[in-house]
TrEMBL record:
Keyword DNA repair in record: no
Domain of life: Bacteria
Record-given protein name: Inositolphosphotransferase Aur1/Ipt1 domain-containing protein
CDD domains linked: PAP2_Aur1_like
Length: 354
C-alpha cells in the first residue's frame, strides 16, 4: 500500500504543470539593447539646433524633387486631364464652378490668394513653436508626424507629377494669382523658380493644415482655440479649390499622407502625441534615469508581493493545537477514547471531609 501510494504521488508530480513558470532570463546584450531602444523612444526635451538641421535637410530633399520636375511636365498635364476626367465620371467635378464663383468677388479671391501664399507656412511654424515651448514632451512625436507626412508627399510628387487646374490647357479655370497680381505667392513672379509648379498631388496645404488643426484641437484648453483648429483645414480646402491650385482629390492624397505620418509616429513612440506627457525631465534627471545603473533598475523584475489582508484565524471553540497536523487524539482530548471505568479511575480521590 505504501509503495503504491508513493508511486502515485510521483506520477502526479510528473504530469502536473507548475502554476508559476519563470522564463529564462534574457541575455545581457539583448536586455541592454532593448533598454537603449526604450531610452531613444522616450520623449525628451527638443533641441533648437537639431530642429534647424531637420528643416535644412527637408528643404534639400524638396530641391532635388523640384529639379526633376521640368522633365515631367508633359506627364503632369496628362495626369491632370486624367484626374479631371475621373471627377467627371464620379459626378464631383465642381472645382471650375467654385473657382469662377469666388473670383467674381474681388476682395474675397484676393484674400484667398494671400491666405494660400502665407498661412500655409505661418500657421505651421506657429504650431511648431507653440509645441516647442508649451508641450516639449509631445513635440518630437508631433513633429515626426509632420516630417513623415512631407517625406511621403515628396515621393508622391516624383512618382505622380500633376499640374494644378489653373495650368491645364483648355480647362476653363482662372489663374487668380496671375489675374489679380497678388504678391507673395510661391506660384507667381520670381518665386516660380523656387517652387514645384507640378506638385499638386498630394496637397500639403491640406496635409499640414489638418495636422495643425488636429494638434490644436487635441492639446488646446480654450474652446475657441479648438474650434479654430477644426475650421482651419476646412477653410484651407475651400481656398485651394477656389484659387484653382488643387483638385479635391489632391486633398484626399494629403489626408492619406497625414495618416501615414500618424502611423509612423505611433509605431515609434507607442502612443499618439496628445497621450504623451506634456513635460519632460530635466537633463540631470534624464541622465540619472538612463545611466547604466538606472537602465539596470528598469530591467529588474518586480518582487512578488504577499497577499494583503489579515492572517486566517482558527475556528471558534478550538485551541491552537487543533491547527497543527499530526497531533494524537489523546493530546487533543485526554478523555477521548476511554471507557467509563478508566475515566473514573483517573479521577484523583477527594480529601476526607471534603
Amino acid at each position: 500500500m505504501g509503495e503504491s501510494h508513493v508511486t502515485t504521488q510521483e506520477n502526479r508530480g510528473a504530469v502536473t504543470p507548475s502554476l508559476v513558470v519563470d522564463g529564462p532570463e534574457p541575455a545581457g546584450a539583448t536586455r541592454s539593447t532593448a533598454l537603449r531602444l526604450r531610452s531613444l523612444r522616450s520623449p525628451r526635451r527638443p533641441r533648437l539646433w537639431f530642429e534647424i538641421l531637420l528643416i535644412a535637410v527637408s528643404y534639400w530633399l524638396y530641391s532635388l524633387v523640384r529639379n526633376a520636375v521640368p522633365e515631367q511636365k508633359a506627364a503632369a498635364l496628362r495626369n491632370a486631364d486624367w484626374i479631371w476626367s475621373l471627377e467627371h465620371t464620379v459626378g464631383l467635378a465642381f472645382e471650375e464652378t467654385v473657382n469662377r464663383a469666388v473670383n467674381s468677388v474681388t476682395w474675397l479671391i484676393v484674400s484667398m490668394n494671400y491666405y494660400y501664399a502665407t498661412l500655409h507656412f505661418v500657421v505651421t511654424i506657429g504650431v511648431l513653436v507653440w509645441l516647442f515651448r508649451r508641450h516639449p514632451g509631445r513635440y518630437a512625436a508631433a513633429r515626426l508626424i509632420l516630417f513623415a507626412t512631407t517625406g511621403v508627399a515628396l515621393l508622391g510628387y516624383y512618382l505622380f507629377p500633376l499640374a494644378p487646374p489653373r495650368l491645364m490647357d483648355g480647362g476653363g479655370f482662372i489663374d487668380t494669382v496671375a489675374l489679380h497680381q497678388t504678391w507673395g505667392s510661391m506660384a507667381s513672379g520670381n518665386f516660380k523658380e523656387m517652387s514645384n509648379q507640378y506638385a499638386a498631388m498630394p496637397s500639403m496645404h491640406i496635409g499640414w493644415s489638418l495636422w495643425c488643426g488636429l494638434t490644436v484641437f487635441a492639446l488646446a484648453r480654450a474652446p475657441w482655440a479648438r474650434v479654430l483648429g477644426l475650421l482651419y483645414p476646412a477653410a484651407t480646402l475651400v481656398v485651394i479649390v477656389a484659387t484653382a491650385n488643387h483638385f479635391w482629390l489632391d486633398a484626399v492624397g494629403g489626408v492619406a499622407c497625414l495618416t501615414f505620418g500618424y502611423a509612423v509616429s505611433y509605431t515609434w513612440y507607442g502612443s499618439l502625441p496628445h497621450r504623451l506627457p506634456k513635460a519632460v525631465p530635466g537633463p540631470a534627471a534624464a541622465r540619472r534615469r538612463f545611466s547604466p545603473r538606472g537602465l539596470a533598475a528598469l530591467g529588474r523584475r518586480p518582487a512578488r508581493r504577499r497577499p494583503s489582508g489579515p492572517a486566517p484565524r482558527p475556528a471558534p471553540g478550538r485551541g491552537r493545537d487543533t491547527a497543527r497536523p499530526g497531533l494524537s487524539s489523546a493530546r487533543r482530548n485526554p478523555q477521548e477514547g476511554r471507557t467509563p471505568q478508566e475515566a473514573a479511575a483517573s479521577v484523583p480521590p477527594s480529601a476526607p471531609g471534603a
